[in-house]
Write a structure and sequence with these properties.
By secondary structure, this protein is an alpha+beta fold. Helices cover about 65% and strands about 20% of the residues. The chain has two domains: about 1-80; about 90-160, Alpha-Beta Plaits. A hairpin with a 2-residue loop joins strand 1 (about 105-115) and strand 2 (about 120-125).
């Protein structure tokens, strides 16, 4: 049980660092092995000490835990397959980075989509209408580069609007 617990801790740490949901599912499976082994051991000991219902209660507890883990893993996988927006913190980070780029007056719109562990970003920024096309393009490029440096950003599309 100790080895399984160490595997759980290491896999969970790696899954959180990489954002890998399959690695997290494996970590949760290792945790479930430890918990179910503990329940099974208690049920067997209870039955040996003259408490025969412990075995049945232990089996029910393990079955319930397996169902719970299955629902948890399924809901996370389903959530990854569905289009959803990035977290508020991610959107605010994108906004802050964009507004710190010289030449960006404001942001009209930020749209994000999470694709697995990565984020796709669509931006509409406002720049001075007196800028040349080349200057506006340069600002858009600097915005894209700045946003791409944020964690988990896979791609950025920047649309430029005049003020």
């Amino acid at each position: 049980m100790l080895i399984k617990w160490v595997m759980y801790v290491r896999q969970k740490r790696m899954a959180l660092r990489t954002g890998s949901h399959s690695l997290m599912a494996s970590a949760l499976d290792n945790r479930m092995d430890v918990i179910s082994s503990g329940i099974t051991t208690a049920a067997i000991l209870g039955a040996q000490w003259g408490l025969p219902h412990f075995d049945s209660y232990g089996a029910l507890a393990v079955a319930a835990l397996i169902v719970w883990l299955g629902v948890e893993i399924f809901s996370q996988a389903a959530n990854d397959l569905m289009d959803r927006a990035a977290s508020t913190e991610t959107v605010e980070s994108i906004r802050d980075v964009c507004l710190n780029v010289n030449g960006v007056k404001m942001i009209d719109e930020i749209r994000t989509r999470v694709a697995g562990t990565q984020v796709l970003v669509d931006l509409k920024i406002v720049v001075d209408s007196n800028l040349s096309l080349l200057e506006a393009h340069g600002i858009a490029h600097r915005v894209k580069d700045a946003v791409m440096n944020l964690p988990r950003i896979q791609d950025v599309m920047v649309h430029v609007n005049p003020d």
